[in-house]
Amino acid sequence: MGDPTIFYYSQRKGWHFLEEDGIYQGTPSDSQDAIVDLEKLRRGGATHVVFTRNTLWWLDYYPEFAQRLAQSATVMAASTEFKIYKLVAVTR
Question: How crowded is residue 17: how many other Cβ atoms within 10 Å of its Cβ?
Answer without folding.
Answer: 20
